[in-house]
Write a structure and sequence with these properties.
Radius of gyration: 13 Å
Strand order of the largest sheet: 1-2-3-6-5-4
Number of helices: 1
Shape: globular
Order of helices and strands: EEEEEEH
Number of strands: 6
Protein backbone atom coordinates (compact mmCIF):
# COMPACT_ATOMS: atom_id res chain seq x y z
CA UNK A 1 0.00 0.00 0.00
CA UNK A 2 1.44 3.38 -1.00
CA UNK A 3 1.61 6.22 1.47
CA UNK A 4 -0.27 9.42 0.60
CA UNK A 5 2.22 12.30 0.23
CA UNK A 6 -0.27 15.14 -0.03
CA UNK A 7 -0.79 17.48 2.92
CA UNK A 8 -4.24 18.61 1.78
CA UNK A 9 -7.33 16.68 0.76
CA UNK A 10 -8.06 16.81 -2.97
CA UNK A 11 -11.53 17.53 -4.29
CA UNK A 12 -12.64 16.41 -7.76
CA UNK A 13 -13.69 19.82 -9.04
CA UNK A 14 -13.90 21.50 -12.42
CA UNK A 15 -12.87 25.10 -11.79
CA UNK A 16 -11.82 27.50 -14.59
CA UNK A 17 -8.09 28.24 -14.38
CA UNK A 18 -5.58 30.24 -16.37
CA UNK A 19 -1.84 29.52 -16.19
CA UNK A 20 0.75 31.94 -17.49
CA UNK A 21 4.28 30.53 -17.59
CA UNK A 22 6.68 33.19 -16.25
CA UNK A 23 9.21 32.61 -19.04
CA UNK A 24 6.74 32.45 -21.96
CA UNK A 25 3.92 34.79 -21.09
CA UNK A 26 1.27 33.00 -23.22
CA UNK A 27 -1.71 32.06 -21.03
CA UNK A 28 -3.07 28.51 -21.01
CA UNK A 29 -6.76 28.20 -20.12
CA UNK A 30 -8.54 25.11 -18.87
CA UNK A 31 -10.26 23.56 -15.88
CA UNK A 32 -8.93 21.81 -12.83
CA UNK A 33 -9.51 18.06 -12.56
CA UNK A 34 -8.96 18.26 -8.81
CA UNK A 35 -8.24 21.07 -6.39
CA UNK A 36 -6.84 21.41 -2.86
CA UNK A 37 -5.28 24.06 -0.64
CA UNK A 38 -1.90 22.83 -1.85
CA UNK A 39 -2.52 22.92 -5.60
CA UNK A 40 -4.43 21.27 -8.43
CA UNK A 41 -4.26 19.02 -11.46
CA UNK A 42 -5.11 20.36 -14.89
CA UNK A 43 -5.71 18.12 -17.89
CA UNK A 44 -4.12 19.53 -21.04
CA UNK A 45 -2.81 18.21 -24.33
CA UNK A 46 0.25 20.47 -24.45
CA UNK A 47 1.83 20.07 -21.04
CA UNK A 48 4.37 22.27 -19.29
CA UNK A 49 7.79 21.06 -18.13
CA UNK A 50 8.30 20.12 -14.48
CA UNK A 51 9.77 23.07 -12.60
CA UNK A 52 8.02 25.70 -14.75
CA UNK A 53 6.89 28.67 -12.63
CA UNK A 54 3.36 29.88 -13.43
CA UNK A 55 1.08 32.76 -12.54
CA UNK A 56 -2.36 31.33 -11.70
CA UNK A 57 -5.85 32.78 -11.95
CA UNK A 58 -8.62 30.59 -10.47
CA UNK A 59 -12.28 31.45 -10.93
CA UNK A 60 -14.29 30.30 -7.90
CA UNK A 61 -17.83 31.33 -8.65
CA UNK A 62 -17.89 35.12 -8.32
CA UNK A 63 -14.36 35.27 -6.86
CA UNK A 64 -11.09 35.44 -8.77
CA UNK A 65 -8.05 34.14 -6.92
CA UNK A 66 -4.48 34.93 -7.90
CA UNK A 67 -1.50 32.77 -7.00
CA UNK A 68 1.95 31.72 -8.09
CA UNK A 69 2.79 28.07 -8.54
CA UNK A 70 5.16 25.51 -9.93
CA UNK A 71 4.63 22.49 -12.17
CA UNK A 72 5.44 19.44 -10.02
CA UNK A 73 4.20 16.61 -12.26
CA UNK A 74 4.04 16.23 -16.00
CA UNK A 75 2.04 13.48 -17.68
CA UNK A 76 2.81 14.10 -21.37
CA UNK A 77 -0.31 14.90 -23.44
CA UNK A 78 -2.46 14.29 -20.33
CA UNK A 79 -1.87 17.08 -17.81
CA UNK A 80 0.15 18.79 -15.10
CA UNK A 81 0.13 18.84 -11.33
CA UNK A 82 0.58 22.38 -10.03
CA UNK A 83 1.67 23.28 -6.48
CA UNK A 84 0.80 26.69 -5.05
CA UNK A 85 3.99 28.45 -3.95
CA UNK A 86 2.59 31.90 -3.12
CA UNK A 87 -0.91 33.21 -2.44
CA UNK A 88 -2.27 36.17 -0.51
CA UNK A 89 -3.79 35.27 2.85
CA UNK A 90 -7.24 36.49 1.79
CA UNK A 91 -7.13 34.37 -1.38
CA UNK A 92 -6.07 31.33 0.64
CA UNK A 93 -8.98 31.92 3.04
CA UNK A 94 -11.36 32.25 0.07
CA UNK A 95 -10.10 28.95 -1.38
CA UNK A 96 -10.39 27.23 2.01
CA UNK A 97 -13.96 28.50 2.42
CA UNK A 98 -14.85 27.41 -1.13
CA UNK A 99 -13.48 23.89 -0.54
CA UNK A 100 -15.31 23.57 2.80
CA UNK A 101 -18.57 24.63 1.14
CA UNK A 102 -18.11 22.02 -1.60
CA UNK A 103 -17.24 19.38 0.98
CA UNK A 104 -20.37 20.15 3.01
CA UNK A 105 -22.57 19.82 -0.08
CA UNK A 106 -21.18 16.32 -0.75
CA UNK A 107 -21.48 14.90 2.76
Amino acid sequence: MTEEKRRFERHKLRVPVELTPEAEGSPVRGETADLSLGGFYIEMLFTLETGTKVDITLQLGESTLLAVGEVVTCDRTVGNGIRFTRMLAEDREELDSFLHTVEEKHT
